[in-house]
Amino acid sequence: MVRERITKPDSSSVVEVLSNPDDGSILLTSINKVIGWFQANSIWPMTFGLACCAIEMMSLTASRFDLSRFGSEVFRASPRQADLMIISGRLSWKMAPIARELYEQMPFPKWVISMGACASCGGVFTTYAIVHGADHILPVDIYVPGCPPRPEALLDAIIKLQKKIKTGTYVAQGLKEGRR
Ligand code: SF4
Prior knowledge:
Layout: E1 4-5, E2 16-20, E3 24-28, H1 31-40, H2 53-59, E4 84-88, H3 96-105, E5 111-115, H4 116-121, E6 142-144, H5 151-166, H6 169-177
Parallel strand pairs: 4-5, 5-6
Antiparallel strand pairs: 1-2, 2-3
This protein binds iron/sulfur cluster.
């Protein structure tokens, strides 16, 4: 029996196709990768905007950029129905405990994108009132540079996050920690 691996051994590939000229082809995958594939294509961001970057985030859902092509246009008003927090703008220390509480209320698995210079490092706001990096209070998965980042940059971050989720590592991590 001759088997030929058709797909590249890429960690983001959901299935591995083994071609068998005698019996046809076989698709192989793991349950973690299938769940990861479902999750990656139905990321629901939380309705959460902090400053000017939020305008760019909002425009991503409009017809010009059409975030719904990637299954993420459903911005939820409740953190309990969302699995992506986009830190879109400067985060003040006064707002930090509220952002952390909202993050805690999101069900597992959940992800965080730090959008723009202010969210990632404080940007031009070198004052004591601003958190100089959202990673001080939240586990950031993807950083988006720029002031403001273009909607395409945020779209690119969401696509990169999808690739990370498709590996299925978040599912394995959640099962290991007994989280839902
Ligand atoms: S990075 Fe620029 S656009 Fe974004 S919140 Fe800061 S000042 Fe506003």
